[in-house]
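Support request, please re-run this one:
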Amino acid sequence: MGTTRRVFVGLDVEWALVCATPANGALVRGWIEEAGDLPLELRELVAYLAARRDAAFSDRWLITLLDRAAGEGQEAQLAARVIVQAMVPGMVRLTQSLLTLRRDFDDVAQVVVGCLYVVARTFPLRRRAKVAANVMLETLHHATRELGADEAREVRLDDLWDVAASDGDVADRVAQGLLIERSQAQQVADTAELDGAEGELVALLAWGVDHGSLALEQARSVVGVVREEAERAGAATPAARKRRSRAVRWLRPVAAEWVHAA
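Re-run finished. Output below.
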């Protein structure tokens, strides 16, 4: 299985040509100004965006470019191209996560890049929070289907965003997702996105386990604490307070890492 990364090298070469056209820089600077962000030279854009650890900032510029990319003509193509270049690090990680003994790195990368282009042009603009994460998740879903619709796929923890909402509370939904973690299952269809505090909890647990910041057993324990808190009537026992404090202690550094990575 090769790991030449030819596809991403090609993207960088193409990007240099895009940046060499002055008109492109003027267009992108204008779009970013409309989003309330600082104007930049196009050749500096990707490095600048990668250096900003600000979720609200990322959501603003991504939504602005996604809105442009949903249109027609060369400007829409340019907006999609900027999105693709800005998300190269995420695409590399996604490509690595989709590798198998039968899949070549560059073959998978070609699919991932193509799928991200599609997502950039069709992303639902109503989803205005954690935009980068949602773009990559949509890309994962497209790429997984294209790489092998007839293969049983490994359900990643990121798929917890798409676990169907049930009549139970958020703990039940988190538990449902954790039960299928790293298992072989068909893609969940007709799913509903979790919003607000429920979605935040699901995303935090998913991100922590998937990035090695939280052990799976710890995540399961957190689910148990959440369920216990929801069901308890009256004051907490000393043992319950100890379990809650332990869960908070586990989650505090994970939350800090998550915010920093956003």
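Residues 149-196 have pLDDT under 50 and may be disordered. The beta strands are 153-154, 184-185.
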